[in-house]
Amino acid sequence: MTHVVVLHGGISAEREVSLASGQQCVAALREAGFEVTAIDVGPDLAATIAAIRASRPDVVFNALHGRFGEDGCIQGVLDWMGIPYTHSGLRASALAMDKVAAKAVFHAAGLPVPAHRLLEPEELEADDPLPRPYVVKPVNEGSSVGVHILRKGDNRRAEIAQGWRFGRTVLAEEFIPGRELTVGVLGDRALAVTDIIADAGEFYDYSSKYAEGGSRHVVPAAVHPTIREQAMEVALAAHRALGCRGATRADFRYDDTAGEPGRLVLLEVNTQPGLTPTSLLPEQAAHAGINFPALCAWMVEQARHGS
Q: Where's the ATP-grasp domain (predicted)?
């Protein structure tokens, strides 16, 4: 019997999300017939390595989210240890987590990305970096942590800049009106297009993602056929451009405010898609006829180490 160690928790701002993902994955993997050991990853890396070694796994299921979990750090450790693991390798994980580097890759591949600018918090405090409305976000965080939309008349710019706690850089990005779409990818297959309707806030923020009733997911999305096809093609192209493997999820903004077919813009690729009860990838997999235990089993079957 294949022994799978599930890493969850971690030390990022997304720890609670990761714990929820991990618990669901542990149950699904056991249902799929695997021997499973769960490891709650904390700040002591040596203790995590020791726990992995003591468990002697055949495969590590990476259910970590955010920094140190999906940015290439734990991937490098597992590469060093020679243990196969789920999801993307070190290079693709690091590229995808760095939003500026990922945009450069997408632009080089001819994929549609929003206008953006990288700046320091002091520059944001001094002046608007882009015409309003625009979005400010951390370069290396996920789950919409630290994301703000600044519209005309909004006087929070200085407050946001002074309270910035996500390093010395701020990513400013043009705000794309319209709808939030997402596409899951499994290997060489784009699954579906989901329309995300945030009920808990003005955009698909942390609360909308993880709070019960925070958002509604419509799959398949009711969008123009041209946009549906484009979203599926771009998601797969972005997955390949970054060098991803296993499962990813591409997030888009779709501006249909002036009518269809409208403008589709790629925001980012998530190399560690959420696997919680409200997560998007499991919903898309189910829509494609893949139940959650089968999805987790597929991830284990695709596991390897190295790039």
A: 103-301
Cα–Cα distance for residue pair 305/286, rounded to 1 Å = 27
Residue 262 gets the label, from left (phi > 0), alpha (psi -120 to 50) or beta, of: left
| Active-site hit among 12, 14, 173, 283 | 14
Find the catalytic residue in 173, 249, 253, 254.
249
pTM of the model: 0.89
Cα–Cα dist 191/79, whole Å: 29
Full set of structural domains in the chain with CATH: 3-87 (3.40.50.20), 96-112+177-289 (3.30.470.20), 116-174 (3.30.1490.20)
Q: Which of 143, 144, 208, 215 is catalytic?
A: 143
**106-142: pLDDT as tens digits:** 999 999 999 999 999 999 999 999 999 999 999 887 5
Ranges of the chain with pLDDT below 50: 204-211
pLDDT at 202: 56
Is 62 among the residues known to form the active site?
A: no
What one-letter code names the amino acid at 21?
Answer: S
Task: Name 272's Cβ contacts closer than 8 Å, sequence gap at least 6.
Answer: 62, 63, 64, 65, 69, 70, 87, 93, 142
